[in-house]
Design a protein that fits this description.
It is a single chain. This protein has about 300 residues and is of the alpha/beta class. Helix content is about 45%, strand content about 15%. The protein contains eleven helices and eight strands. It is globular, with a radius of gyration of 18 Å. The structure holds zinc ion. Zinc ion (ZN) binds next to loops.
Length: about 300
């Protein structure tokens, strides 16, 4: 029996259960968008290879690519059949209609992202939502601070100011927000941006340490915009208390790079199914390296 079964976990789980275990043992759980079947197969396969729990998510900005009602049955089926615990999560939900469509489709967790609103408004709306979501056994993530984005971003968000520190999450406000809203996870800013990096990112690990010390222990801290951050800095952030790490842009672009190279080097027509099979394997090995960094030496 796999160890996760011994813990009494079913494989489709509430995000809170996954994050509680990760916080307790100081490892991080990857949260990766799965808008295509190839990404879904590669990412869940990698989590099984490493033995780590995983969060797969559908972003509101990806809904025009594939509707949440269409992708949810696949994501949930993969979660149920996985050899590791999997949470199925809404990423950067802003529009309540989209969020409720996700919940109705069976998602076990929601990021309600009102980070562009003033603090009081963000807190008020997230608190209201969290009360309802928790009564339905759905986990909630919110965001505080404004995560900026690059030209190659898929999530949107404002461009970075000259001094990125202006966007950092304030530790006292984060503590108040977490206590009053009751969210399970809080996305915070300490140096990452969404999308692909134009210049070398530098995380402020001391700022993350201050955030971790200020925010109640039961609230997991989340790092978004991790694509392109070197593994050493990611490892430091995990050690300092980043429990959920969102990652997508680099992995997606790397899959395309691999597929393009495979076609270019084949010297003959390539069947699409052979291309996707090889790409799924590449996504799986690339994600395995990543999830191993997130595991922070923890054996599952
Ligand atoms: Zn994000």
């Amino acid at each position: 029996m796999p160890p996760h079964h011994q813990k009494g976990w079913t494989m489709l789980v509430n995000m809170r259960e996954i994050l509680d275990d990760a916080r307790t043992h100081n490892y991080a759980v990857g949260c990766i968008n799965t808008p295509t079947m190839d990404l879904l197969r590669g990412i869940v396969g990698a989590a099984e290879d490493v033995g780590t729990p995983i969060i797969i998510d559908h972003a509101e900005v990806h809904d025009p690519l594939v509707r949440v009602e269409d992708i949810a049955p696949y994501m949930i089926d993969f979660a149920r059949k996985a050899k590791v615990p999997v949470a199925v999560h809404i990423d950067h939900g802003v529009d309540p209609t989209f969020i409720w469509r996700g919940i109705r489709s069976g998602f076990t967790s929601v990021m309600y992202d009102l980070s562009t609103l003033p603090f009081e408004e963000n807190l008020k709306r997230v608190t209201e939502f969290t009360g309802i979501a928790h009564s339905l056994d759905i986990s909630v993530e919110a965001e505080l601070g404004v995560m900026t984005s690059t030209l190659h971003d898929s999530h949107g968000g404002p461009a970075a100011p000259a001094d990125i520190r202006e966007t950092f999450t304030d530790p006292d406000l984060a503590a108040t927000f977490a206590k009053e809203s009751g969210v399970d996870a809080l996305a915070v800013c300490f140096g990452t941006v969404h999308g692909m990096y134009v210049e070398e990112p530098k995380l402020d690990i001391e700022h993350l340490t201050r955030l971790r010390a200020a925010v109640p222990e039961e609230t997991a801290l989340v790092m978004h915009g991790s694509s392109g951050v070197d593994f050493d800095q990611i490892a430091q952030a995990v050690k300092a208390g980043a429990t959920k790490v969102n990652y997508y842009s680099y992995l997606s672009a790397e899959a395309s790079r691999f597929a393009a190279q495979l076609v270019a080097e084949a010297g003959k027509p390539v069947f699409y199914h052979d291309l996707t099979e090889a790409t799924v394997e590449h996504i799986r090995t690339t994600t395995t390296e990543l999830l191993t960094v997130f595991a922070n030496g923890h054996t599952f």
